[in-house]
Amino acid sequence: MPGKTNTLLIKTPEGIVFSQLLASPVSRFMAWIIDLAAISAAMTVLGFVLNVLQVLSADIAGALLALAYFVLSIGYGITLEWLWRGQTIGKRVLRLRVVDAEGMRLQFHQVVIRNLLRFVDSLPVFYFVGGVACVLNKKTQRLGDFAANTVVIRNPRISEPDLDQLLTGKFNSLRQYPHLEARLRQRVTPMEASLVIQALLRRDEFDPKARIELLGEIAAHFREKSGFPPEATDGITDEQFIRNIADVLFRTRRGKKLEKETA
């Protein structure tokens, strides 16, 4: 069995390597405890409502309560992980996120599969099957993750970079295409957005040749992904293009104001 590591390396077809910290089984279990508390609280409220049916039929009330628990426990994970891009309340608290194991955008069917298999992972009690699978799997995947080709990563808290200092005040030609800006923000994964910032922050750590190659690969990746027309990107360096991408991703509210001040 390959050696276990707490780091996941993902290489895109363009040759860009993403490095992500895998969530430990302990942190995942703690996130599940928080989620279980949230589900239990919702079930308590729902239980009070269904108690009214006890007057009519205790059997019907019991059956509806059991059905409600199944729908809520499954629907909770599916709904939040889809709307919050791989996070539930517990994962948000502990800064965890579900992502595609190959670095692609998380798909709805993956969210559904991993949550439908949650009952298998929870057997016989306290996620024993899922916990054993996480310990034995090199990517810390439970059975639901393995079937859905997903992993859970950890996003450690880092100090927010000074965007005013990091991004130059030059005119950003990408801002002329708001519909493409919005589409880019929808397409970019958290890993890709992090890569853009890290490349700009650490660019001076590379020798000139490696720096040019790295920024060129990242720029080529985002040129293909973004779909901006040639007139929006021609005549600017790869590094400035990446700065423009970072400006679009991280300063969506302030971009237009910045352009007016520097135009």
Automatic annotation (TrEMBL):
Pfam families: RDD
GO cellular component, one term: membrane
Subcellular location: Membrane
Transmembrane portions of the chain: 29-53, 60-78
Keyword annotations of the record: Membrane, Transmembrane, Transmembrane helix
Superkingdom of the organism of origin: Bacteria
Keyword DNA damage belongs to the record: no
RDD domain residues: 23-149
Bilayer topology annotation: Multi-pass membrane protein
KW Membrane (keyword) present: yes
PANTHER family hit by this protein: SLR0254 PROTEIN (PTHR38480:SF1)
Protein name: RDD domain containing protein
Taxonomic path: Bacteria, Pseudomonadati, Verrucomicrobiota, Pedosphaerae, Pedosphaerales
